[in-house]
Amino acid sequence: MTAVAEAREVAAQARAERAALAWEALARAELRTGARSVRAAPAAPSAVPSVPAADDEPARPAALITAERPPMAVPPALAPLLPEGLRRGGTTAVTGSTSLVLALLAHACAHGAWVAVVGRPDLGVLAASQAGLDLERLAMVPSPGADAPAVVAALLDGLDVVVVGPGARLTDADRRRLAARARDRGAVLMPTYAWPGAGTTLVVEGGRWTGVGTGDGWLRAHRLRVARTGRGVGAGRTVDLVLPLGAQVPDEPAVAPVAAPGEGLRLVG
Fold first, then answer.
1. How many angstroms separate the CA atoms of 5 and 109, rounded?
2. Is 145 a domain residue?
3. Is residue 253 part of a domain?
4. β-sheet bridge partners, residue 163
5. In the sheet where 115-118 sits, what is the strand order?
6. Counted domains in the chain
7. Backbone angles phi, psi at 143, to 5 degrees
8. What was the pLDDT predicted at 93?
9. CATH number of the domain within which 185 lies
């Protein structure tokens, strides 16, 4: 066996083990908290270790996980803010818009990524599907309870992107350990609330819906202004975009001014 073939086999075995740990974490969370996994878990190997706490298991060398794995692609509309894509091993916080989070996940899944959402009971499967997410590549743990640190840690072991919402109760020490674990495993940690120490933060500064007329129509698109803070190329930039990405939004027609009461009338008699 050549060195290249052997390296590929080792990497495949490592990924299979990571996936088995992640699905075991989901099964454990489902029993205790009512979590739901959109995709049925694959059959686990006969000897799968128990799910470790966030800081128990020594990390495998990061080079094994991230070697020759480029950053994950982002939608072209977000390229000015994330010119290097979603950096594997990094923490990218996205605050102020669930639609923006779903757009990033949908693009990642379309390029082969496996993703999970933890601690967001307000986010439903229908919304994820309508945003273009491949449900076969999505796992959801709405309310992980006291197991939140272990569940997030195991998902970071097995999946590419793990979204963490405020429903996952974490201490500051948990957050530091999980950020370190994402770095070691080559996963993307994506909190949807302010996360101290995040390398990149996307903040939605404002937005409005379009499509509704005067007593008619329906919501068609969401215009957002998104700013990036943090370190690296793109920090300090702002972009305007429309969700869903690629939607064609016509210019809004001008509205004729309404005459003030009494304007244009004169007293007769």
1. 27
2. yes
3. no
4. 117, 190
5. 138-141, 115-118, 161-164, 188-191
6. 1
7. -135, 85
8. 97
9. 3.40.50.300
Domain that holds residue 168: 3-41+73-212+219-243
Q: Which two tokens stand for residue 123?
A: 């986010």
Within a domain: 16 = yes
| Radius of gyration of the chain, Cα coordinates, nearest whole angstrom | 23
**pTM exceeding 0.85:** no
The C-alpha atoms of residue 4 and residue 227 are separated, in whole angstroms, by 42
Per-residue pLDDT tens, the chain, 269 aa: give them. 566 566 556 556 666 666 666 666 566 555 555 545 554 444 443 333 344 444 454 444 544 444 456 889 999 999 999 998 999 999 999 999 999 999 999 999 999 999 999 999 999 899 999 889 999 999 999 999 999 999 999 999 989 999 999 999 999 999 999 999 999 999 999 999 999 999 999 999 876 666 555 555 555 677 888 999 877 777 788 888 888 755 444 555 444 444 455 555 555 55
| Strands laid side by side in the 92-95 sheet | 92-95, 200-212, 217-230, 238-243
Tokens of residue 103, six digits = 């757009």
Kindly report the number of other CB atoms within 10 A of residue 103's CB atom: 25
How far is it, in rounded angstroms, from Cα 112 to Cα 156?
Answer: 16
- Whether omega before 244 lies within 30 degrees of 0, making that bond cis, reads yes
| Tokens 């064609």 sit on residue | 248
Phi, psi of 2 (to 5 degrees): -70, 165
CA 86 – CA 103 distance, rounded (Å): 13
Does a structural domain hold residue 208? yes
